[in-house]
Amino acid sequence: MPDRNPLDEAVVERLDEHDLRYTSGRRLLVRGLRSATGPVTLPELLDLEPDLPQSSAYRNLALLEEAGIVRRLVHDASDHARFELAEPLTGHHHHLICESCGVMVDIVLDDDIEHALDRSLESMAASEGFSLRHHNIDLFGTCADCRA
Amino acid sequence: MPDRNPLDEAVVERLDEHDLRYTSGRRLLVRGLRSATGPVTLPELLDLEPDLPQSSAYRNLALLEEAGIVRRLVHDASDHARFELAEPLTGHHHHLICESCGVMVDIVLDDDIEHALDRSLESMAASEGFSLRHHNIDLFGTCADCRA
DNA sequence: TTTACTGCAAAGGGTTTGCAACATG
DNA sequence: CATGTTGCAAACCCTTTGCAGTAAA
Predict the structure, then answer these.
(1) How far apart are CA B136 and CA A76, in angstroms?
(2) What is the predicted pLDDT for the residue at B4?
(3) In total, how many domains does chain B have?
(4) Alpha-carbon distance A64 to A44, whole Å?
(5) Residues of B in contact with A117 (CB under 8 A)
């Protein structure tokens, strides 16, 4: 098995834990997701990797999500779900979303803001009786192209 | 028209601006949304207000959204969209979501955290060429009932 | 009385699944 | 070879819409 890189290693490890094989279709999915600059819809993914049949792509994205390799997102303005590689493989980040064209871009906040926020969110959750697992921040606005 | 309260006044004002009437079905929707402790799905709303027919409820929620009275949310874990009264009528807030049962609860953050965050998010957006309109924070965890 | 609105039933459309053939380890 | 996986096509299910009748201002 040539061409192994750190991301593939991590993917294979998670696949093994779930008795899943790293088939050619799953390789294409991972390659397509990695080549994107943010979460992509299924049509966008099929456009990046045209050899993927739709039903297998959906089926494998669901399996990869269960294995902790993929994260599925839904965004109010789009009919399609969006997919990205999971944070353990890519690092904690948030999303900037253009309300005009729907494009989604990854962003990373300063550590000190993240920490201050974590503390505040933790206490809010506790006061409602929740145990907190993680948080999302979505920023909505208009991208440079759509304002041009 | 008796029984007007401040919320109804604000609703009527927005309806008028959009040439929409405050019909009995729309009153039931607003009453149902107001009685909930967080965003609700359509089945939940029909359960709160059983006299609402499904198609009219969906149709009116869409119109009320256009009029700035209702906000529609989609949440990864649920097949159904969720609806709440829009922030101009209720105030800025975020959501705490139970990953086990799907329930959504409104929360309000401290002003100083909101302001620090606003500044940070604004500069992130600007560095990507976006003009920022608003932000969402979703907290995911497990509610007290589901941990019991 | 004009125009918006209602509710039923049927269609729409992204996503999921049954099944028989195929690949992987 | 035993078991996971594929891809087509059909089903699913939340949501939307056409239409003929009704209610609001």
Answers:
(1) 12
(2) 59
(3) 2
(4) 18
(5) 113, 117
Average pLDDT, integer, range B141-147: 91
Span B27-43, average pLDDT? 96
Are B100 and B42 contained in the same domain? no
Q: What is the pLDDT of residue B97?
A: 93
pLDDT digits (tens, 9 = 90+) for A66-112: 999 999 999 877 789 999 999 999 999 999 999 888 888 999 999 99
pLDDT tens for residues B99-115? 888 889 999 999 999 99
Do B86 and B96 reside in the same domain of the chain? no
Q: Which of A117, A123, A124, A146 to mutate to test the interface with B (most CBs of B within 10 A)?
A: A124
Angle, CA of B88, B130 and A119, to the nearest 5°: 65
pLDDT digits (tens, 9 = 90+) for A27-54: 999 999 999 989 999 999 999 999 999 9
Instruction: Give the span between the Cα atoms of B44 and B56, in whole angstroms.
Output: 15
Per the rule left: phi > 0, alpha: psi between -120 and 50, beta: everything else, B47 is alpha
Q: Tell which of A91, A114, A137 closes a domain.
A: A91
Query: Is the same domain home to B82 and B127?
Result: no
Determine contact, residues B98/B142, Cβ cutoff 8 Å: yes
Range of the domain at B143: 92-148
Q: Does B109 lie in the same domain as B36?
A: no
Of A65, A102, A105, A101, nearest to A86 (Cα)?
A65
Restricting to A residues 12-71, those with a Cβ less than 8 Å away from any Cβ of B are none
B114: domain CATH number? 3.30.1490.190
Partners of B75 on chain A (C-beta within 8 Å) are: 74
The Cβ of residue A120 has, within 10 Å, a number of other Cβ atoms equal to 17
Same domain, A116 and A74: no
Question: Is A126 in the same domain as A56?
Answer: no
